[in-house]
Amino acid sequence: MASLNRVILAGNITRDPEIRFTGQGVPVCGFGLAVNRVRSKDKDAVDFFDVSVWREQGEAVANHKKKGDPILVEGRLQYRTWEAQDGSKRSKVDVVAESVQFLGGGASNGSSE
């Protein structure tokens, strides 16, 4: 059976993007993303996602975007687990971006693919 893991999200960055480097020196940028959706006729809801963007795209996001900026993310969902400091098991689903597009006006508008 074929499978598909694809997500496209457009929203606003919830915290300034942070760049870090793997042990091999590969840059990865992390940020939060808020996506508005209609919950019912009169009410909206907001979904929050953690996003990782790798290599040159990650550097572009870290250098040109900030909290509150609109962005479009295209990528895949990744489930991960870890053990917390207190020994409890934790898990979450993150978005791993394969391409990003800067939305909105201004000098930082553009695409990073």
TrEMBL record:
This is Single-stranded DNA-binding protein. Signal peptide: none annotated. The keyword Chaperone does not apply. The lineage of its organism: Bacteria, Bacillati, Actinomycetota, Rubrobacteria, Rubrobacterales. InterPro entries: NA-bd_OB-fold (IPR012340), Primosome_PriB/ssb (IPR000424), ssDNA-bd (IPR011344). Pfam families: SSB. Homotetramer. It comes from Rubrobacter tropicus. GO terms for molecular function: single-stranded DNA binding.
